[in-house]
Design goal:
single chain, alpha+beta, globular, binds adenosine-5'-diphosphate, binds manganese (II) ion
């Protein structure tokens, strides 16, 4: 496996410098989504003192021409602080600052889907929507080959890796555990982690969170994963089907509930929402990956524990359904449902906004399109 030169640097030497006292000033690493809607960028600045709230963080700007974000002659873009986290890489009192991106006319950038999602979330706040997402991903070497796989072949058939342990089953646990620990320090609401079906594939869960916060936490958890991976010389990819053929795809299951769903007779609401969702399948597929379904078509084949991208299905505990009602929810007749269609590289703001529009704002209408797997 080829690996990055910077991962080979002696990090012990760095620690000698990092052991110096910090002094008065504070570092803030601003993080934002780039123009592809999948990548993340960061830029660090010095603050005179520790910011106590998001309001104390200054707006900033950057040159959008290198991040696929600028339009026309003026390439200045604005960074609007949206959520603040402890910086696990430089520790207290330094900060990670997740930002929305605005264009030079102060309108949201094309890939700033948080802006509208927040507006939609605020409209339904009285229904207390909770969202929890299960982010799956795959470790790759810098050569694009899955981490730990034989350099010119495949490991044994997939399966035993799921929740597996041992050198022959769990590939890259050091990174997974570092990521989990670092997320907790940062203040990310990470719910857990497990090894997935394909060797080198893993999952972490975020939430449940009410409203817009889930998306903020998921994006920063992705940032932290990539940042930790950088030190190890490994890449975490969110491609929905990194290895074609008989290998599992990679998704980002979305778990959703409202106050009414969580209470007595909740199942009635769950069934009503699923009925609404069933009438807008293609609308969802378009919202569930950055390429309007074309990425996800490689993953949602109807095989390897997925539904087919062209069909809608729902059921209790059915791993091949578009929407799954967890067994405990079926028994207790209240709780949440799991939308298994979002791709691993989905934008959580796009996914959750679409769900709210149909379930809670009663929007209707669908598109017709046949995807080829
Ligand atoms: P599974 O075993 O089905 O893979 P996980 O434990 O990986 O389930 O993920 C369950 C997800 O459901 C978590 O992201 C969690 O935050 C979310 N979740 C649990 N309860 C609720 C709820 N009431 N509303 C929304 N999401 C929920
Ligand atoms: Mn899971
Ligand atoms: Mn999973």
């Amino acid at each position: 496996m080829s690996t990055s030169a910077s991962s080979q640097l002696n990090k012990g030497i760095k620690q000698v410098y990092m052991a110096l006292p910090q002094g008065e000033k504070v570092q803030a690493m601003y993080i934002w989504i780039d123009g592809t809607g999948e990548g993340l960028c960061c830029n660090t600045r010095t603050l005179d003192s520790e910011p106590k709230s998001i309001e104390e963080l200054p707006e900033w700007n950057f040159d959008g021409s290198s991040t696929f974000q600028s339009e026309g002659s003026n390439s200045d873009m604005y960074l609007l602080p949206a959520a603040i986290f402890w910086d696990p890489f430089h520790k207290n009192p330094n900060k990670l600052v997740f930002c929305e991106v605005l264009k030079d006319n102060r309108k949201p950038a094309e890939t700033n889907l948080r802006h509208t999602c927040k507006r939609i979330m605020d409209m339904v706040s009285n229904q207390h929507p909770w969202i929890g997402m299960e982010q799956e991903y795959t470790f790759m070497g810098t050569d694009g080959h899955p981490f730990g796989w034989p350099s010119n072949g495949f490991p044994g058939p997939q399966g035993p890796s799921y929740c597996g342990m041992g050198a022959d089953k769990a590939y890259g646990r050091a990174i997974v555990e570092a990521h989990y620990w670092v997320c907790l320090y940062a203040g990310i609401k990470i719910g857990g982690t497990n090894a997935e079906v394909m060797p080198a594939q893993w999952e972490f869960q975020i939430g449940p969170w009410e409203g817009i916060d889930m998306g903020d936490h998921l994006w920063v958890a992705r940032f932290i994963l990539n940042r930790v991976c950088e030190d190890f010389g490994v890449i975490a990819t969110f491609d929905p089907k990194p290895i074609p053929g008989n290998w599992n795809g990679v998704g980002c299951h979305n778990n959703f509930s409202t106050k009414a769903m969580r209470e007595e007779n909740g199942l009635k609401h769950i069934e009503e929402f699923i009925e609404r969702l069933s009438k807008r399948h293609q609308y969802y597929i378009r919202a569930y990956d950055p390429k309007g379904g074309l990425d996800n078509a490689r993953c949602l084949t109807g095989f390897h524990e997925t539904s087919n991208i062209n069909d809608f299905s729902a059921g209790v505990a059915n791993r091949g359904a578009s929407i799954r009602i967890p067994p405990t929810v079926g028994q207790e007749e209240k709780g949440y449902f799991k939308d298994c269609r979002p791709s691993a590289n989905c934008d959580p703001y796009s996914v959750t906004e679409a769900l709210i529009r149909t379930c809670l704002l009663h929007e209707t209408g669908d598109e017709t399109f046949q995807y080829k797997n």
